Give the backbone structure.
Amino acid sequence: MLSKEEKDFLVYWEQNRDRQKKTFYQLLIGLPLGLILALPIIINYLSGWHKRATMVGNAQSSPLVLIIAVLSIAVFFSIFHKRHRWDMNEQRYLELKQTQDDEDVKTN
């Protein structure tokens, strides 16, 4: 027997699974979390607390390269995180759907 929460999840996921699978949606929703992850890296670099690392970083590449790298990390993290959440919800949905189908077969 499925609980009310599980039935609510089945209804919710049937309505939203296709929309949440789109990569643009995953990027749009997950990007704030990715930027929060990248923010300490940028602050650490811009603060210049380690003078030697700043000198080496500026001599070997421009700060633009670091910013592009950090933004790339943020985008990757945001898409990866939301896709992982989608996979977990999809697995839960399929398991609950199977349980529901098994119950329907038993009652008939």
In short: The chain is about 90% helix and 0% strand. Helices lie at 4-21, 23-47, 51-60, 63-107. The chain has a mean pLDDT of 89.
